[in-house]
Amino acid sequence: MGEGETPGQPRQDWSPDYVHKCAVCGSTQDVIPVTEWNRGLCHHCLPRCLEHRVFNEIRRRQMIGPRERVGVAVSGGKDSSSLLAILAVLRRQKPFTLVAIHIDTGIGEYSAWSRAAVEELCRRYAVRLVVENTADYGVSPRTLGPWPACAVCGSIRRALLPRVARRENLEVLATGHALEDMLQTLLKQVLSGRSFCPKPVLPATPYDPKKIKPLYLVPEKLTAAYARMKRLEHVEELCPYFLPETHRFKEVFEHLERLAPMSKVQVLTNLGRLMKPPPVSERLFVCEDCGEASQRELCPLCMIRRLQHGQPVPFLKTQPGDAVGRPFEGTKEEQDPENLGDASE
Question: What is the per-residue pLDDT for 337?
Fold first, then answer.
């Protein structure tokens, strides 16, 4: 029986003792146990080790080629800010162009703080910043009928980021999805009866640049630690529209990791081999409002704008109420947040 365990009670932590010692220098001071990587890392060694781990994944999966133009989506949170800093370090060793893209969603002080943090971070690392305002497109990330604000915001970002990348002639679009984000998406796919696994690299299509997720094997606790140790400018406050229940599936994997160390990475990598990659959606329509290639008569962005302004959407069986909030009683399929946009990301 381990130290501190109560007789008759199930063991709470099955992590091996060696994860409490730094795997690089052997220190036992200020060590963060990283069971996902089967090691411990002290505060001194963690930043360098994390950078090397991400560099190796970028090289192994050929995420970034020589002299490619890379856009990185930076929201101002810990994950995307850490990704920008890591790519800025890698840029010294591997020649490529780095451009930061920030989507300003216009959520009062929160968006102002986020934008200020991103601007300061880009100045620090000498990275060109492109800011896109959702207000310019007549949309905002607020609750829309059955779709929570987070689903609407995600759909807006997924629609705008490739547009900005194309306009800026970027060949690669990097996002800060961490290990838990990938696992949560995977579980949602399984529970919805979809057999697609999120992938760290999606090849370029006629519509979008290549999409990469360099942090896909990095636990969120490490991006938080990296941002803190490197003193990266980022926003720690939660978005006022944040709903804890939308991230509840992450708790499943935290519990599993306690019972079976390394299980997070094993689940993602093993199911990734067994499950199919997301399909490339054919865009056979031209959006009636903006002219973008689309899967339906309206692109996701213009559909959201019409719904938020109480305008008709031709392919919905039941039309929405107006912008002040009459309920939208669409079909179950129409109410699925994935149907707000391309779920292949």
Answer: 44
CATH class of residue range 45-237+249-274: alpha beta
d(CA 123, CA 117): 10
How far apart are alpha carbons 78 and 47 in whole angstroms?
Answer: 14
Q: Rounded CA gap, 76 and 28, in Å?
A: 32
Distance in angstroms (rounded) separating the CA atoms of residues 264 and 299: 35
Distances (CA, A) of 143 to 149, 302, 312, 333: 4, 16, 18, 18
Q: What is the CA radius of gyration of the chain?
A: 21
**How many Cα atoms sit within 13 Å of 344 on the Cβ side?**
19
Strand ranges in 219-319 using DSSP code E only, listed in sequence order: 285-286, 293-294
Question: Within 13 Å of residue 190, how many CA atoms lie on the same side as its CB?
Answer: 14
Q: Using the predicted structure, report yes or no on whether residue 343 has a pLDDT greater than 60.
A: no
CA distances (Å), origin 65, targets 50, 91, 166, 179: 21, 11, 18, 23
In the chain, domain spans: 13-44, 45-237+249-274, 285-340
| DSSP of 11-39 | PS----GGGGSBTTT---SSEEEEGGGTE
Angle (deg, nearest 10), helices 220-229 and 46-60: 130
Per mean pLDDT, which range of 89-98, 226-235, 241-250, 297-306 is the poorest? 241-250
* Spatial contact of 33 and 15, defined as CB atoms under 8 Å apart: yes
Most confident of 194-203, 222-231, 307-316: 222-231
4 CB-side CA count, 13 A = 4
| CA separation for the pair 133, 147 (Å, rounded) | 21
339, 259, 334: which is closest to 10 by C-alpha? 259
- Counting every residue written for the chain, the total comes to 345
